[in-house]
Structures are given as C-alpha cells and as structure tokens.
Amino acid sequence: MPTSVARRLVPSHLQPLEVQHERSVLSVTAFDFFGGDGGVFQELVLSVLVPPLVKPGDPLPKAGLYPFVVATSTEVGRREGVDRWKLPHLMQDVEVVFTEGDSQISAAASADGEPILELIATSHRFEPTELLFHAFMCDAGGSYKADLTMRGASYSEHEFERGSLVIHPHEMTDGLTRDEIADTPFREQWMKKGVEVFAPLEAI
Asked: Taking 90 as the threshold, does the pLDDT of residue 35 lie above it?
C-alpha cells in the first residue's frame, strides 16, 4: 500500500514500515476463535506494519502492528477488544466464512450481506512455532503497546505469492485506496489451532 496512505492510518508517534520506497505493508488477518475470554467468534483485523519497540535484552519481535480497524462476529468479542485492548472497531457484527482445502484456506468477510474482502492463503511447510509481535493502540488517554504471542503446532509461512486479496468498498475499508493495494500478498501466514496471548497493555 502507499506509504502516504499508511501514514494517515497510524498515529503520529508511529511510522509505517516500508518494504520499498514509498510502499508500506497492509496486514490482513482473519481469526476463527474457538475458545477464550471472548468465547467462540470470528475476527477480521486490518493493520499497518510499524517498527517494533526493541529494548536491550528483550526478545526480538517478528513485527510491530498498528491495528487501525477490527471487526468481530459477536458483541462479546467486540466489547473485549474495545474495553480491554482499546482497539478501534467496526461497531456491527460481521460474518467471516472460512473454507479450507488441501493446500489453501480462504476467508470471506461481509456485514449484513455487504462484502468487505476475500482473502486466500496457500500453504508451504507446516511446523511448530511461537511468534512475538508488538501491537500498538491509542485512545484519548494515551498510547499503549502489548506483547502479542502466537503459538501453535502447525504454522506455515512463505513469500511465493500464490494467494490473493480482494477488497470491496465498505465502511471498514474506507481509509484505503483500494486500487493502489496489491491483490497478491507478498507474505502468506497460516496457523492451525493456534493460541493467541495478549500481555497487559503498557503505556508508552
């Protein structure tokens, strides 16, 4: 995505991470939660990649993320994200339909029958993993960071550019210039039956 667009989506104390000159990274993540504090629900997260907050002696995160809009399929999941994690949400339920095949998985997101996006990710080699990310949030009270750990026994990641992304006009995608976003993800990640752990928020 254009860095000029990414800069409009992140707060002033963060900077988009560029992969090429004036090209930043839009992260599209779909979750199918089957347990936890929020119960069973689906979630769609749109983020801009930003540099992580690295401190001497701390583990090196895989990436930093600024989620600029989140959507969930239930009010309980949405309330958890807004009240506990201060994440900006689309304030209506969405439907995220997952379809898994032998070597790919697709996620189609919509709200009240109106399409939001369709994402296809393909597989490479599945291996156990544990990944650390820094997630950044802000509200009227300040700016925050949380360590986000993803772990699972079956995780695939590659940059073979076999997947696809289709973004539709929708309230959730209003901040994006859709015709300037690549329709082939340069990196595809797929975790099966993983666990997501959010550490408590830290003021920054």
From this structure: no
